[in-house]
């Protein structure tokens, strides 16, 4: 395509005007994604290459689709615990079925324009979910750092940590593993404080690279990643695995995958939109893009994908302007997996565990909890209960408990009621109600009214009520009949003001 200048000379207009910025950003995102893809796969109990497969699909397939132009998708630390539990309970062949069904459900929800409704989920529930995942992730990966085997339940993981760490100190091999993991975390924490020129290498890559170098030079007795090769690691689900869809437990796991992956992706999209001034996210299309990616990941038997805020933020901060950067990052992952798969065998497992302990720590919003406790204690309670429930019970039940508590909290706050009694010593007693009178506040209303003197006339003013439900109206009528039955002047009731608004359409 060409255009003419004022002098008539043609000027070629590039189809990719931002290719230079997108190319450099894609390299940064690739270097951030590589250790995270491998680390999430190892922590999930699946071959390391499957994490790369999900990263490749997230970059090339989801990256090409419309939705959020600068958001980057791939395997996420937030789903590690759920994937590990699913593989342990149903087996690796069933993982493909779960991820495939998750993708199909996401496609359906996007087609039905349900993406925007995920923004209605209480942010406290989402943050509590991530905090619970973070706590379980930290506890489980500390065992890997100490060259130990983690218990199955969240509570057992936390309870057994002190003994495991104490045993590691007295064992030479376990101590070497623990120190290497701790060193990885230290590099990640301190990396942000280094000069800008040093930070051109992403922190996760630098931490894993230094740990790998230390393990090789010092000949440390630590476990390394097992390599199977890209094609050898693919686990397409056999037809027999689809028979497991009749299992109620498997269906519950699919629902959990769908809700958590969708919520995490769309909340990440909202966060990424705040980082740049480009096109805003189209939520329904983004949900369909995630669904398409998960459908392909399921067919390949790979890990589930979500949008990942760490990679997305790195993409924006590196100067990406279009979706070309995220597609190219997927190409670089594919080239690495195809040409250099043997390099994975040198990566120490405790270094990857350290990466995920650091990632899990960032999922626990300590500052947010402190701020909520000062200003909105109900929201803080929902967050903490959701997190504790996930640790104590399981992911799916913990999220359901959090959602139920959020609904109860909202209902309680919506039923705010003020009851004022005015008794001047002579004449009728005045009872003024304002706000929302619902069954949740019924005990308070009846206790106050039944405490009024039986030998005095009463006027109940309901004009300040915005809402009076059937249960409250029936209870007030019953109380008024009882109060008037003892010979006292009948209770007078001022009804709520009803405002009728006529709506005309042209």
TrEMBL record:
Could you confirm whether the keyword Transmembrane helix appears in this record?
Answer: yes
Q: GO CC annotations?
A: membrane
Q: What is its main location?
A: membrane
Q: Does the keyword Ligase apply?
A: no
In its UniProt record, which GO terms are filed under biological process?
transmembrane transport
Where are the membrane-spanning stretches?
23-43, 50-70, 90-108, 120-143, 174-191, 245-267, 331-360, 380-408
> Sorted alphabetically, which keywords does the UniProt record give?
Membrane, Transmembrane, Transmembrane helix
Q: Where is the SLC26A/SulP transporter domain?
A: 19-386
Q: Its topology with respect to the membrane? A: Multi-pass membrane protein
The protein's location, in the record's own words, is: Membrane
Pfam families on file: Sulfate_transp
Which protein is depicted?
Sulfate transporter
What is the organism of origin for this protein?
Streptomyces humidus
Q: Which gene encodes it?
A: ychM
